[in-house]
Q: What sequence folds into this?
C-alpha cells in the first residue's frame, strides 16, 4: 500500500521520535552510560533503506540453524546457562512495509491458535498512520494480511487514523480476533485532528472480514493495553488520555463484546498489563506503572476494582495454568531489576521467583507459557538493546527457577543477513510448546530500528525435557 508521506520520513526521524516520545519505555530499558565529556562527534549519515525490506542477497526469508546460536554473549550472568542443542530458526520480514515508517514497529503481543500465529505491526505515523494484522502459517511459511486498519476505518483526510496496535491480538470463543488501536505520536490526539478516541476492532480469520466493535468506548482516550476473556467475551483495556484530556489520567475499561456496551470505565487503571484469571473471570492489576497495591475487578459483580492483599509492579503476564498459576514479571530498570513472580488465582497470593534478566537488559514486555506450565519464554530488551545480550531467547524453568538461553540470535542474523534484532513486544508459543514466535523490531543499519521481522524458533525437544 502506498503512503503519501513515504518520502518524507527518514531514519533520522526515527531517532528523534524515539528519544522524544518514549521516555517511559526507554527508561525501563538499559542504555549505555555516557563516557566522560568528550566532544560529540558528528552523527554518521543514515543508510538509504530499501522498501520493502529484504535480507542480504535479496530474499525476504531464511531458515537456518548454527552452532553460533549457542555462542554465549559476554554480558550474560554466570548463573545463566546456555542450551546444548541449537534450534532451527525461520526468519522473515513482514509484508506491507512498502514505505518508510516512523518507524515500522511492533508494540502488542501476538497469539497462537489453530496452528497459526496472529500478530500486528504499524507504521507509527501520526496523525494519519496505519497498522496491519497478519496470520502466519508456520507449515507453509507464509503470511496472510487480515486487516488494513486504514482501509477498515475509512477516515477522511486530515482525521486521526491510528498508526499502532498496542494491545494483544487474541482469538475469542466466537471465532473472531479482538484487539485495539493506539496513536503514533503522543501530540496528535487533539480536536484539530478530529480525535474522538481509539477503536476496538475484530477480525474473522476464516473470512478475513474486519469490523468496528466500538469507537471511543472511553471518549478521547487511546487504548494502549488490551486483553480478552475469550470465553465470557469481555474485553479489558487500560486507556491513555488524549493530548487535551491529560488531567483525566489512565482509566480501566471493561467492555461487553456481546452487548457492545461499556460495563465499567473508571480511574486509576493499569499502565501496561493486567492479570486475567480465566478460571474465575477476575482481573487483577496495580494502578499505574510503579509498585502498588493490587486491585481486583469481577465482571460478574461489576463493581469498582477493590483492593486485595499484596502489591506488585506488573509489565507482562502469561495465561493461567491448569492449577491456577499465572507467571508475571515486573517493570525493571538498572536500579530495580526485573522480578519474575507467580500469582495464585485460588489464594490471590504472590510468590517471588527471582530475577528475570540474564544480562544487562531488564525490560521484558511479553511472556509465553509452555502448555505444560513448566517453562516461560521471553526476550529481555523490549524497547531496544536486546542485542547487548545477544538478543537472547530465554527459557525460565518455573520448577527450578533456572534461566536458560535457548539461543543468542545476535549477531548471527545481522552479520549474515543485514538484520539486527533489537527487541520485541510479542512472543507466543504454539499449542505443543515446540515453536516460539517472536515479532522483532529490526535495524538494517539505523541506530534504533526501522522494520519488523518474524523469527520462529523451533525449540529442540532435548531442551524441553
A:
Amino acid at each position: 500500500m502506498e503512503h503519501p508521506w513515504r518520502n518524507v520520513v527518514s531514519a533520522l526521524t526515527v531517532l528523534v521520535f524515539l528519544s522524544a516520545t518514549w521516555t517511559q519505555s526507554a527508561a525501563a530499558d538499559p542504555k549505555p552510560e555516557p563516557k566522560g565529556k568528550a566532544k560529540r562527534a558528528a552523527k554518521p549519515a543514515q543508510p538509504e533503506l530499501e522498501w520493502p525490506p529484504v535480507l542480504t542477497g535479496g530474499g525476504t526469508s531464511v531458515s537456518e540453524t548454527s552452532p553460533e546460536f549457542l555462542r554465549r554473549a559476554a554480558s550474560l550472568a554466570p548463573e545463566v546457562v546456555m542450551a546444548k542443542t541449537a534450534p532451527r530458526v525461520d526468519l522473515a520480514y513482514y509484508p506491507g512495509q512498502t514505505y518508510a515508517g516512523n518507524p515500522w514497529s511492533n508494540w502488542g503481543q501476538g497469539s497462537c491458535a489453530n496452528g497459526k500465529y496472529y500478530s500486528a505491526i504499524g507504521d507509527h505515523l501520526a496523525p494519519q498512520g496505519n497498522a496491519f494484522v497478519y496470520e502466519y502459517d508456520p507449515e507453509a511459511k507464509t503470511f496472510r494480511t487480515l486487516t488494513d486498519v486504514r482501509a477498515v476505518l475509512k477516515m477522511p483526510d486530515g482525521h486521526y487514523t491510528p498508526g499502532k496496535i498496542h494491545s494483544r491480538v487474541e482469538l475469542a470463543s466466537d471465532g473472531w480476533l479482538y484487539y485495539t488501536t493506539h496513536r503514533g505520536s503522543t501530540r496528535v490526539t487533539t480536536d484539530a485532528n478530529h480525535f474522538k478516541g481509539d477503536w476496538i476492532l475484530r477480525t474473522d480469520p476464516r473470512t478475513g472480514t474486519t469490523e468496528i466493535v466500538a469507537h471511543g468506548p472511553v471518549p478521547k482516550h487511546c487504548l494502549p493495553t488490551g486483553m480478552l476473556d475469550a470465553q465470557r467475551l469481555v474485553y479489558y483495556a487500560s486507556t491513555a488520555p488524549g493530548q487535551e484530556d491529560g488531567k483525566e489520567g489512565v482509566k480501566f475499561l471493561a467492555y461487553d463484546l456481546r452487548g457492545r456496551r461499556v460495563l465499567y470505565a473508571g480511574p486509576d487503571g493499569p499502565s501496561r498489563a493486567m492479570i486475567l484469571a480465566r478460571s474465575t473471570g477476575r482481573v487483577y492489576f496495580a494502578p499505574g506503572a510503579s509498585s502498588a497495591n493490587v486491585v481486583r475487578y469481577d465482571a460478574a459483580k461489576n463493581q469498582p476494582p477493590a483492593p486485595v492483599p499484596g502489591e506488585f509492579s506488573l509489565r507482562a503476564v502469561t495465561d493461567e495454568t491448569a492449577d491456577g498459576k499465572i507467571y508475571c514479571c515486573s517493570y525493571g530498570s538498572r536500579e530495580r531489576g526485573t522480578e519474575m513472580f507467580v500469582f495464585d488465582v485460588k489464594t490471590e497470593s504472590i510468590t517471588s521467583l527471582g530475577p528475570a534478566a540474564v544480562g544487562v537488559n531488564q525490560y521484558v514486555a511479553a511472556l509465553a507459557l509452555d502448555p505444560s506450565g513448566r517453562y516461560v519464554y521471553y526476550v529481555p530488551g523490549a524497547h531496544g538493546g536486546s542485542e547487548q545480550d545477544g538478543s537472547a531467547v530465554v527459557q525460565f524453568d518455573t520448577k527450578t527457577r533456572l534461566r536458560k538461553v535457548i539461543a543468542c540470535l545476535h549477531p548471527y542474523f545481522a552479520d549474515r543477513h543485514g538484520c539486527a534484532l533489537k527487541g520485541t513486544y510479542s512472543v507466543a508459543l504454539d499449542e505443543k510448546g515446540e515453536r516460539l514466535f517472536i515479532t522483532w523490531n529490526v535495524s538494517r543499519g539505523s541506530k534504533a530500528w526501522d522494520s519488523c521481522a518474524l523469527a520462529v524458533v523451533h525449540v529442540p525437544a532435548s531442551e524441553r525435557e
